[in-house]
Amino acid sequence: MTDKLTGAAGRQYVTDAIRHSLRSGDLVPGQRLVENDLAESYGTTRSAVREALQDLAAEEIVEIVPRRGARIRAVSIDEAIQITECRSALEQLCAMKAATQANEAQRTELRRIGTEMRQAVADGAVHTYSALNQRLHELVVEASGQEVARRQLERLNGPMVRFQFRLALRPGRPAQSLQQHLDIIDGIVSGDATAAAQAAAAHLNDVIEQLRSSAATSSTPVPTRR
């Protein structure tokens, strides 16, 4: 019998696995999280699962309901907008610092991501573009060396998953955001901190506008039969 992960290792493994499942769309807002099922799926003890869920609840990714267990917390569009406003400030800082701190390997990877993003848009490969988008944002933070910002962004990004997926998969959205991402890449690769920060601000401002558009659409009254 394979030993189950316990203690701090099991707790961290479950936490990371749930975050990954959210990013990949395997878990969705409102979905119940059953301790026994998660322990079996991840090869950990129930106590490791319980502790991981408590950690994720502290990050407001999971909601623990008395007598009903845990579930993925749903985020309103208003909250998503506020989260994105906070992300914008942090990502501008990271882009600015990455422009001066990135090493040559990171600049090379940024160029590669830009090339592959162009190709993904040309091919209509929405999911490929979404994955490249995620890697781009991660790489900008890595290249910045701003560990405090990285931790805060990780916490902020968790509840945003359903909105990120909704926006990324909208028809025409990759083509619309492509130049925004390329501008971020160009600013960092060229070492222009001001341009990199401005490009990050422009991109996140556009995300906010897209979220506001979603709010307007979702609030449109549905005709009723009379």
Explained architecture:
The chain is mainly α and 226 residues long. It has two domains: 7-72, Arc Repressor Mutant, subunit A; 77-218, GntR ligand-binding domain-like (Four Helix Bundle (Hemerythrin (Met), subunit A)). The chain is 73% helix and 4% strand. The chain contains ten helices and three strands. It has helices spanning 7-24, 35-42, 46-58, 77-101, 104-123, 126-144, 147-157, 161-168, 173-189, 193-218, and strands at 32-33, 62-65, 69-72. It has a three-stranded antiparallel β-sheet with strand order 1-3-2. Helix 4 packs antiparallel against helix 10 (193-218). It is globular, with a radius of gyration of 19 Å. Residues 8-75 form the HTH gntR-type domain. This is GntR family transcriptional regulator. Keywords: DNA-binding, Transcription, Transcription regulation. Pfam families: FCD, GntR.
